[in-house]
User: Fold this.
Amino acid sequence: MDVLFLSRLQFALTACYHWLFVPLTLGLGVVMSVMETIYVVKGDEAWRRIARFWQKLFGINFAVGVATGIILEFEFGTNWSNYSWFVGDIFGAPLAIEGILAFFMEATFIAIMFFGWEKVSKRTHLAATWLTALGTMISAWWILVANAWMQHPVGMDFNTDTVRNEMMDFFAVAFQPAAVIKFTHSVASGWMTGAMFVVAVSAWFLWKKRNEEMAKKSILVASIVGLVGTLLCMFAGDKHGVDIAKHQPMKLAAAEGLMQGSNEAPFSIVPGIEVPHMLSFLATHDWNGYVWGVEDLKQVGEEQIAEGKVALEAFRTYREHRDTNDSIAQQALATFQQHKAYFGYGYLDSTEELVPNVPLCYWCFRLMIGCGCLVALCFVLALFFGYKGWLPRYRWFLLLCMLCLPAVYVAGQCGWIFTEVGRQPWAIQGLLPVKAALSSVSAGSVLTTVILFATLFTALLIAEVRIMLKAIQQHKDEDLVVSD
Assistant:
């Protein structure tokens, strides 16, 4: 229960709670916008009522998600001040843009969306709804740019005098391929979550034989959005795998439990069941491509740690003598520049630190894929049964839709756990270990905030679920004439 463990626990707790709300916001934003678009195009009042119902649930979720997101950003300053000092010039930029641009955009147009139904024209209101949904995606973009930079730092240079990394190329940071891939994958998974939420709630209505016309129409729209999200997830996931194999090979090795590298690496479905050559193909798009194993990377890590120690010692010598002995300082600086690519490795004590929690990465990766495939199958069946008009007759399928709601959340949580745990021991890949990013705080103070946040977030989650359940249970739409 040291400061490092507790600080990681606090951040993980906040991030996991936050990601319960974000994907639903992203997905519901698109679903409700499509529904309102249908209303404006067709002029059917039924779609207006349908859109307003899902917008109500969107608003409940949005309000709670904002609270957890703000706390998450403040934790960088409270528990990770060395991190904030070391890369604040770079990491702070996308977070600032997110706050200034996306947050104000969302706050402006969400007000028109909720209170402007009778005050502005149909098209103006539709624009506000789409801009609210777009604002959530812009917000996600800048947050994911920051996260992608932690996974693959680019566009900066280290200032030996200020001991800070400084941004040299904003566009390299903001639009690097890793950020585009991560954004596509994360937002598409959000579409899947929002769509599955709509399908599950609508299935409950059909199970209870209530609001049936609204439920059937909602399922058709949501299943299409969900399938689009699924296809984007698959595409981005493929690109993401290749990027991880290139820039974070230890994460990929941990995801597969691959101890020894191979040119014919198999993909492990579960322990004992493998598909020959498949991992090589997924990681390199070559059936015989080489995939690094944990033990191979540990051997390479020995040299990297040795060079990192040289760089760290040279940097300390430079800092000690830069004002008193220019010749020693310049010689030390030259040594540091020669080895600075491995500067972060100097803080590590052994190659064992380079290995993340392999069992956790392995099973999270499989749960993510397995639950994602189950949800995708549900979308396909929902679209087919909905098109045929068979939804109310298959009660087993309605039950499956409701069970797939927790499955889509499991997939999202496991995806992020794998992403962040697989990067360990790095706060910034290859640049700054987590243990060197801490603030000078006591374990007791961190433990207090962990307990406080756990209590607060749990209370918020319970409140949101209760409010949503009440809104769903009390909704009545039977008296509305729904046109075909």
Observations:
- The longest helix spans residues 3-42.
- The radius of gyration is 25 Å.
